[in-house]
Model the fold of this input.
Amino acid sequence: MAKFITLEGIEGVGKTSNLNFIQQLLSDAGHDCVVTREPGGTALGESLRSLLLAHSDTQMSADAELMLMFAARAEHLNKVILPALARGQDVLCDRFTEATYAYQGGGRGLDLAKIGQLEHWVQGALRPDLTLILDAPVEVGRARAGRRSTPDRIETEQDAFFERVRAAYQQLAQQQPERICLIDAVPPLEAVQSSIEQSLRKYNILD
Ligand code: TMP
Done:
């Protein structure tokens, strides 16, 4: 059965290198895999991503931000994710709805029930088979991310925002251990990758 795997975490926790690593593991296990991202993954989704991350709209309301995330997600599900799963391909997605719970719920303080309503509307009962959350203290993420490109609109938030995002991610992992796994992203990359591989086996993704 095709698997839907998502990767999450605050900025600087190593999402990109670990996404490549997971893609390689899936490919070595003989899985055909589509790699994609949110917000984005479709022409409309990438346009919405540009709007969401641009610095031109610093006053964007939290509700508008929330609904744009789900608009991009609806398009992505219909055009990319659901067709790939129906064809028997795994889908490996850089962020999904757990990011909405963490950033718009935890970070912006939006009502989680509102997010739940949109989740139900857009996804029905569909949830990722496994969500891996790379976890590290905000200052560790900042130090690592600081070496890269200019921060986007959301990345320019204060540390307190990212503390709330991190806490929301931790809470999601605690509440849904049957499909959400928190990975300690502080150790060196090889150790993190070993934890990721163990989780993929534990949650029967590599079968
Ligand atoms: P990234 O995928 O390149 O890390 O950047 C996407 C940004 O969008 C990141 O700051 C997290 C944010 N985001 C949300 O706030 N809510 C969401 O639902 C998603 C998918 C991303």
